[in-house]
Amino acid sequence: MRTYYEAQLATLNTNMIQMGALCEDAISAAIHALLEDDMQLAEKVKDTEMEIDQYERDIERLCMRLLLMQQPVATDLRIVSSALKMISDLERIGDQASDIADITKHVSFRDFESKVHIKEMAKAAIIMVTDSVDSYVKHDAELAKTVAEQDDKVDELFLKVRNELAELIRNNQEMTESALDLLMIAKYLERIGDHAVNVSEWVIYAVTGDYVK
Predict the structure, then answer these.
(1) Which of 147, 141, 151 is nearest to 191 (CA)?
(2) Looking at residue 123, what DSSP letter applies?
(3) What one-character-per-residue DSSP string does 24-84 give?
(4) pLDDT bracket for residue 119 (50, 70, 90)
(5) For residue range 46-71, what is the model confidence (pLDDT) as tens digits?
(6) Which residues contact 150 (CB under 8 A, 6 or more apart)?
């Protein structure tokens, strides 16, 4: 029974890693589609989002099986319960990457490239997601703690982008619709950063037993 239980925990770990990797892929693809006006890539993000949703369902079932049938000890209980919390945030990251890809079909970033810091914000958000997933893979609470610190940079960049777009609208009203689309993308990136912070907080709890909000 213990061998089977350990195999199930190993499967949980593998599935979490793969779900996190898909989230990184979805964000990177959505942003690349935005920056390069690549509509084919934007369409593919939807398929990745559907894979992420399937992993959420599979991991949830596996976690419930472990909790109800295996009665995990304290450390394993933290890992399983944290995974249940984390997949909700990872699924939302996938949703927001898909939302960015959808908006990309209606806005050309090249009209804004020299005026708005959206590329820098996207890079910072992707790093946060990567580090939060890596901290889970490595069981590294110290790496997880750095994710919350990085969120300050994403929030600052969101305010900068918002102010830049407001200035553009004041000076060039025919760009209003596209500027508002780009503002929505910035807001989704800011939310992705928040979800990465949530993931990192559950990693810290899984590793140390301390939940720090």
Answers:
(1) 151
(2) H
(3) HHHHHHHHHHHHHT-HHHHHHHHHHHHHHHHHHHHHHHHHHHIIIII---HHHHHHHHHHH
(4) confident
(5) 999 999 999 999 999 999 998 888 77
(6) 124, 127, 128, 131, 193
Amino acid found at 60: E
Contact 24/122 with Cβ under 8 angstroms?
Answer: no
Cβ distance 118 to 186 under 8 Å? yes
What count of other Cβ atoms lies within 10 Å of the Cβ of residue 106?
9
Tokens of 78: 């933290």
Residue located via tokens 């894979």: 51
CA distance linking residue 2 with residue 123, whole number of Å: 43
- 118: tokens are 């959206």
Please count the residues of the chain: 213
pLDDT in tens, 8-50: 989 999 999 999 999 999 999 999 999 888 999 999 999 999 9
d(CA 86, CA 92): 10
This model's pTM is above 0.85: yes
Euclidean distance between CA atoms 133 and 112, whole angstroms: 31
Both tokens of 157, joined, read 């960049």
Nearest to 128 by CA among 185, 195, 184, 182: 195
